[in-house]
């Protein structure tokens, strides 16, 4: 219990520290890389120590690897973008498998509408973004497909996993804002603080909700 509590507390401290001190900067250097990667690595450690599903631990660990790759890029460089996207792609594969293995809610109009709305919204968004993608067009299309499947799978989870669903939706929203930063920002333009804060806040706290909700689902309410 003490180990998992320390891991979660450390993750939150590092996540907030990166949010306040580095996420809006062009280059965080080695300290930024360590703080960024450490925050999600500690979430994976928390899930492991708390006895969470191995797919949850895998998804968080792969996300930490993706964070490391993206943090290694210097301003104006994208040589680590594809490895970072590949790591996150595999993280979403792990999450899809995890969500399909968790208890599914009964099919109803609400969750069906939410799933359709998410997928259609994502398709329209990436179609609008397509002219700005250049050689990243195919990787972005593939990544968009898997994250939309991940989000749709989370929307079908039973109510005890509400935090997981919320965290997954926050993850999708974070990636949408990040794609605007990556592919529509004029060359040489500086990062804007507000979108950068939104990207990291939605991403990290979304991952934290997935980790916590995957380990400790809400107890079923008595009838």
Architecture blueprint of SSEs:
Elements: H1 2-21, H2 29-49, H3 54-72, H4 81-101, H5 109-129, H6 137-154, H7 162-183, H8 193-215
Helix pairs in contact: 1-2, 1-8, 2-3, 2-8, 3-4, 4-6, 5-6, 6-7, 7-8
Distance between the termini: 31 Å
Kindly state the mean pLDDT as a whole number?
A: 93
How would you sum up the major sheet? none
Task: Please state the overall shape, judged from the principal axes of the Cα atoms.
Answer: globular
Structural class: mainly alpha
Q: What is the ordering of alpha helices and beta strands?
A: HHHHHHHH
Rg calc: 17 Å
Helix content: over 70%
How many helices does DSSP assign? Answer: 8
Strand-residue proportion = under 5%
Number of strands: 0
* Poorly predicted segments: none
Protein described:
This protein is mostly helical and 223 residues long. Helix content is 74%, strand content 0%. The protein has helices at 2-21, 29-49, 54-72, 81-101, 109-129, 137-154, 162-183, 193-215. Helix 1 (2-21) packs antiparallel against helix 8 (193-215) and helix 7 (162-183) runs antiparallel to helix 8. The longest helix is centred in the C-terminal third of the chain and has 23 residues, at 193-215. It starts with a helix and ends in an 8-residue tail after the last helix.
